[in-house]
Amino acid sequence: MTELETAIKTMPKVELHRHLEGCVRIPTIIRTALRHNLKLPTFDAAELSKTARLSGPMDSLTEVLKMFEIAQSVFVSYGVVEEITRQALEDAYRKENVRLLELRYSPDFMLKGKDLDWQKTLEVIASAAHSFQRKYPVFTGIIIIASRSYGMDSVLKTIDFAVKNKALIAGFDFADDEINYPAALYAEAVKKLHEAEIPLTIHSGEEGRFGQVLDAINFLAPRRIGHGVKAIEDPSGRTIELIKEKGITIETNPYSNYLTRAVARLEDHPLKKFIEAGVSVSIGADDPEILDTDLNKEYLLAVEKTGLSTADLAYANKCALAASFLPPDKKQEAAKWFAPQGS
Ligand SMILES: [Zn+2]
Asked: 226 C-alpha to center of ligand 1: Å?
């Protein structure tokens, strides 16, 4: 391991953008499928890795959706949900030294076609996160996702579910297809979230045009934007100005953007430009198991490909901590782990 790799690995980290459905280990998929008589393309771990994980830029969205379906197929019992949550936390803490982790999931996607109750599932996830943070120096939060492509009824149901469970969650997110489901559709629906003071993040500007990011901000008033790569393409610079003006944090996921071809090369990722423009940014792994990544890899690539300095990495962590949806007392407590050594 190089000096840089060691420095990165030991650095305490904040992760704001990670999907629980993208954290399912291959051995867990196989073991669960065998135990519950589920179908899999193969039960060989090495072979399954090839079909369930993306090893290079995607050929098609269908290919990636298939990978998510494989991971999703194993959320079949509360015991499995608990196990997957615990493993996601273990991996983040032990391998990456993540000390503040916001995990997100879409109840409608995760539990589609399953015999599991939304409420009980959330309670299982929350309790797994809670017992983990009692044992280890990690703070965790849960973000509930509305899957836009599941239609308005699903979105409204998910919003009501989040409001009802305000005490168990940290925030709310809108994810998947933004092009066919533009922000304006949800302008009315998000009012409930704002009234309940549930912080909002939106997957926006991952593909398409920078105007989507402007719309997401103007119609939905999020505190954070997921991905946001297209924001840099506004020739007037207005999108970036608005992001700064509103104090919005961009949750970047550079390797994910490279794999889904949101950027052609990591060198083209706007992360460094965001930082230079004074935007608040975080660095996330998005779907570590499916995208074969983690924050150690993301940070290393950020330095080697996107031109970040180690000071930039510390800046991104500082921004992420400030932008976390966790309550202020927890963030203050967590801040101690991120204080420079000797201070
Ligand atoms: Zn995401």
From this structure: 7
In the reported structure, the alpha carbon of residue 343 is separated from the centroid of ligand 1 by a whole-number distance in angstroms of 35
Report CA(18)–ligand 1 centroid distance (Å): 7
Q: Give CA–CA dist 249/225, Å, rounded.
A: 6
Domains of the chain: 3-332 (3.20.20.140)
Dist. CA 38–CA 34, nearest whole Å: 7
**Cβ proximity of 288 and 22 under 8 Å:** yes
Find the 140 Cα to ligand 1 centroid distance in Å. 17
Q: Read off the tokens for 25.
A: 């280990």
DSSP tag of 253: -
Q: What burial class does residue 107 get, using C-beta atoms within 10 Å of its C-beta: 0-12 exposed, 13-18 middle, 19+ buried?
A: buried
pLDDT at 341: 59
Q: CA-CA distance, 82 to 190, in Å (whole number)?
A: 29
Query: Which of 221, 151, 225, 145 shows the shortest CA–CA distance to 187?
Result: 221
Residue 320 Cα, ligand 1 centroid: separation in angstroms? 15
Mean pLDDT of 246-256: 98
CA of 228 to the centre of ligand 1 (A): 11
The per-residue pLDDT of the chain, averaged, comes to 97
Residue 116 region by backbone torsions, left for phi larger than 0, else alpha for psi between -120 and 50, else beta: beta
Q: What is the DSSP letter of 53?
A: S
Span from the CA of 170 to the centroid of ligand 1 (angstroms): 16
Q: With beta carbons less than 8 A apart as the criterion, state whether 29 and 114 touch.
A: no
| pLDDT, tens only, 43-74 | 999 999 999 999 999 998 888 999 999 999 99
Residue 66 and residue 41 in contact, taking contact as beta carbons nearer than 8 Å: no
State yes or no: pLDDT of 342 exceeds 50. no
Question: 292 and 22 in contact (C-beta within 8 Å)?
Answer: no
- Given this model, what pLDDT does residue 61 score? 83
Ligand 1 center to residue 307 CA distance, Å?
23
CB 297 within 8 A of CB 291: no
Task: Report the separation in Å between the CA atom of 333 and the middle of ligand 1, taken as the mean of its atom positions.
Answer: 27
Contact indicator for 258, 269 with CB cutoff of 8 Å: yes
